[in-house]
Design a protein that fits this description.
Blueprint lengths: L1 H9 L3 H29 L22 H7 L13 H17 L1
Helix pairs in contact: 2-4
Length: 102
Amino acid sequence: MLAGAARMLRKLGPRQIAEAWLVAALWWNTASVLYHAKALRRSGVAIVGPPVGEEPVGLPRPGLGRHFSKSTSAPVLLEEPSHHQHLVQEFDELAEFYEVLS
């Protein structure tokens, strides 16, 4: 783990600085909002009230994710890379960096 962390820190560049900033913002949000909300909920305080107003027109409706998650017990892999593959790679890199920082 430490060798991997040292290798990761040697490759720091502008992108990794931005990623570290994102990780710090996520930690700050967790500490300043989520932990307090969990404590309030445990103590019986209502955190979220009922919906107010009219529903906006044109909201996206739930897709078929639930259907597909229940229709097969094993992962279904794509036969060819998606045009969103770069986003998957960026997410995986951020996850590695987050692990080093946590």
